[in-house]
């Protein structure tokens, strides 16, 4: 029972971490890349910088999702191996 409790806590902690990443990282990168990279450094217009900043945000969402799947897969296989040895 207690082994299950620890794995549940670990899974919840991982889920909350990636949820926070999913909320903050794409939004932060959208606004910072729009202001500092596309408009500031590259001198793009508002319309173009919106488009490219949105691409940065979408790519960031996909990277965070891929990292979540990778971590969840490894955590699940680790728990399966530990459970199988018992």
From TrEMBL:
Alphabetically sorted, this entry's keywords are: Cytoplasmic vesicle, Endoplasmic reticulum, Membrane, Transmembrane, Transmembrane helix
Pfam family example for this protein?
Answer: VMA21
One GO term (biological process): vacuolar proton-transporting V-type ATPase complex assembly
Query: For this UniProt entry, which segments traverse the membrane?
Result: 12-31, 51-73
GO CC, alphabetical: cytoplasmic vesicle; endoplasmic reticulum membrane
Please name the PANTHER family in this protein's record: VACUOLAR ATPASE ASSEMBLY INTEGRAL MEMBRANE PROTEIN VMA21 (PTHR31792:SF3)
Give the protein name, as stated in the record.
VMA21 protein
| Protein's gene | Vma21
